[in-house]
Hints:
- One of its GO terms (cellular component) is nucleus.
- The protein is α+β, with helices and mostly antiparallel strands.
- It folds into 2 domains: 76 residues, Phosphorylase Kinase, domain 1 (2-Layer Sandwich); 186 residues, Transferase(Phosphotransferase) domain 1 (Transferase(Phosphotransferase), domain 1).
- It is 39% helix and 19% strand.
- The strands form 4 sheets. The chain has a 5-stranded antiparallel sheet with strand order 1-2-3-5-4, covered by helices on one side. A two-stranded antiparallel sheet has the order 6-9.
- It is globular.
- The chain starts with 6 loop residues before the first strand and ends with a helix.
Amino acid sequence: SINFGTISSTCQLIHKPQFRVSLVRKNGDNTEVVMKRLTAKGQDVCEAECLIHGAMSQSGNRNIIKYITDDDYEGDKIIFVEYANESDLKEHIPFGLSMKTINMYFKDLLTGLKHIHMLGHCHRDIKSENLFISNGVLKIGDFGLAVRFRFGGTESKVRSGYGTKITFAPENFEKERVDGPALDVWSAGIVLFNMLTNKLPWKRAQPTDPDFSEYLANPGWSGPEFKNIEESSCDGPRIMKLIRKILQVDVSKRISVEEILQDEWVTNFKRTYEQKILEEAAELPSKRTRNVRNSHQ
């Protein structure tokens, strides 16, 4: 029994030396939540995570995993957060996502990022494993690497090198401080690419990576997966144009979250030709029935 109330464990999700993550049920109302238990070694980072995640979810933004409470228990730090009943985005991508779902999830991601950036923070670890799906809504979680970049009205650059290398922006490999929100934008672009292709454009955004080296030399370069996106539907060229604006190596030219939210494909999703044909085919029987009735009138 702790501040959250009496709980019973239902399923252990992750078990690592410094922390454990379990799905637990609150006795009394049977509410299911996620409990993260950190040992003493992981508690320094945890304090900052609690403060930032709590601040991010305080307004009730639907695209942020809700932070419930935290407590100390038997020398460990306990955190309770909202349970996403459809797992994380990484689990969904291999099965293939419809263009409509990709558009919806990407819009959810952008809306969540806009909220985080508006509150003066950047996430620094946007990837499919940290994006959770609950009742069809994408929510950003795991704020362990999040950091403040705005103090009052003054914006500062953040330390580089934090995050997951496969979603790193090129500048994040350098030693200099970097633009925090721009890191999140790049990572969001990698997530979009991943949703569309079930692959990544490159292993690392560094000149030593053959695919990225080609892209670096010619931003108009189209590898096989780029071409697949362009040719996948009538929206393909527009989506690829947006991805190139997001995966802009020059940070000063990289599109912002606010600008992405104004993009035509993001705001005015257009059905693919395939979807349109299927919908029209489904309507044919009813049209035939109406025509037969009209001919007998």
